[in-house]
Amino acid sequence: MLHISEWIIAFIISMLTALLVTPVIKKLAFCLKAIDKPDNNRKNHDGDKASLGGLAIFIGAAAGFLYLQPEHPQMSAIIIGAIIMLLTGLIDDIFELKPYYKLFGQIAAAVVVVSSGLVIEKLTIPFWGTVYLEGLAFVITIVWIVGASNAINLIDGLDGLAAGVSAIGLSSILVMAVMDYRVVVAYLCIVLIGSCLGFLYHNFYPAKIFMGDTGALFLGYSIAIVSMMGLFKNVAFFSFIIPIIVIAIPIFDTTLAIIRRIINQQGIATADKQHIHYQLVKMGYSHRTAVLIIYAFSIFFGLLAISFNSSTLLASSIIFIIALIGIQVIAELAGIVLKGKQPIIGSMRKVLGINKTDQIK
User: Fold this and answer.
1) Taking a C-beta distance cutoff of 8 angstroms, is the pair 216, 54 a contact?
2) Three-class secondary structure assignment of 163-212
3) pLDDT recorded at residue 7
4) Separation between Cα atoms, residue 304 and residue 289, nearest integer Å
5) What does the buried/exposed string (b/e) look like for 236-256 if buried means 16 or more CB atoms within 10 Å of the residue's CB?
6) CA distance 196 to 167
7) Which long-range contacts (CB under 8 A, 24 or more apart) does 28-32 make?
8) Cα angle for residues 18, 22, 27 (degrees, 5° grid)
9) Distance between CA atoms of residues 114 and 335, nearest Å
């Protein structure tokens, strides 16, 4: 049963809880010295900022969750995995874990979920049909959870960016969950969206607090889980690509970062200021405008995912082609208007962050 009044109450509870708890978390972060300091190499904010905001997002979501009390066979494992992911980010924000320790925590959270039986069992591929993953299901599910968590983490570079993109992605999943009558997925999306928006009040430019890895890993994990509970269960064509489209910007940015660092002979975990959001700022857009541009693209991809979810194969193919053309046109126009000469996508070197003197060997 879809009780709209319960959804509204849960949303308000989550949003207000996150809104009111965030200032307290800010004070706690300074006491624990969980501080994000300016760094010319990859951080350009002014002054020290508290970096445990993700804890407020978690508390807000937990408050709404306790009100709704959704039931699911794997809910206990999902909660345990969320706590492991949250603690991994929390410890990293306070003590700065080495990359492989942080990866271990992410994998541990994913393994808990997979062990409960919640896995990506099959993928529906256009012109091919349904492919049952069987033994690969565990590996692909772990890769999806860890990948989505890191994708949100990597895009968390500008004030309000990760929280806003996550809220938009979760809103897209919420619409599809309602369309498919997946009540538990809708419940989880509602409380997560509410907590993101409550926190965003303090996190949008100029931010008073950052979500840190505590929030980025938790939100990435949450998006991965709700998509597994809903989107991957869809048997329609293109269902395999819908979850990827929902968080297309973070996934695209993560993929480019990996390619860029391999080409530049850097470690994959090496931080830099070559991400898409930083490139927009370098191109002349203000901090706030750069974030809004990525919001707009995220909304576009969210609407695209919703269209895919309810379309036939032919319609999905047409939508996909139109989307690719639309992305190219929008990007070209944005580049021309801003620079008057060089489009955004026209220079892959600039997007990838490769120096002119770098040679691909």
Assistant:
1) yes
2) HHHHHHHHHHHHHHHHHCCCHHHHHHHHHHHHHHHHHHHHHCCCCCECCH
3) 92
4) 22
5) ebbbbbbbbbbbbbbbbbbeb
6) 6
7) 28/52, 28/55, 29/53, 29/93, 29/209, 32/94
8) 160
9) 43
Whole-angstrom distance, CA of residue 315 vs CA of residue 27: 52
Residue closest to 162 by CA, chosen among 69, 282, 53: 53
The per-residue pLDDT for 339 is 43
- CA distances to 16, 40, 119, 195, 260 from 271, rounded to whole Å, are 34, 12, 31, 28, 11
Cis peptide before 206 (omega within 30 of 0): yes
Q: How far is Cα 247 from Cα 84, in angstroms, rounded to an integer?
A: 22
Q: What is the pLDDT of residue 341?
A: 37
CB of 185 closer than 8 Å to CB of 229: yes
Q: Report the largest interatomic distance among the alpha carbons of the chain, rounded to a whole angstrom.
A: 61
Q: How far apart are CA 195 and CA 344, in angstroms?
A: 34
Where are the alpha helices (H) located in the chain, listed in sequence order? 4-31, 53-68, 75-95, 99-115, 136-155, 161-179, 183-203, 212-229, 242-246, 248-263, 276-282, 287-309, 313-339, 348-352
- Ramachandran sector of residue 2 (left: φ over 0; alpha: ψ -120 to 50; beta: rest): beta
Q: Give average pLDDT by consecutive 10-residue segment, the chain, 361 residues.
A: 83 98 95 78 64 96 95 95 96 90 96 93 68 85 91 82 92 89 93 97 92 94 90 52 68 67 62 62 76 86 77 62 59 42 41 41 32
The three-state secondary structure class of 329 is: helix
Q: Give which of 114, 108, 169 is closest to 140, Cα–Cα.
A: 114
Look up residue 128 and give its amino acid. W
Distance in angstroms (rounded) separating the CA atoms of residues 94 and 31: 11
How many C-alpha atoms does 184 have within 13 Å on its Cβ side?
Answer: 15
Instruction: Return the sign of the alpha-carbon dihedral for residues 134, 186, 247, 86.
Output: negative
Residues in the chain: 361
Residue whose C-alpha is closest to residue 247's, from 142, 154, 183, 141: 154
For tokens 């269960």, name the residue: 233
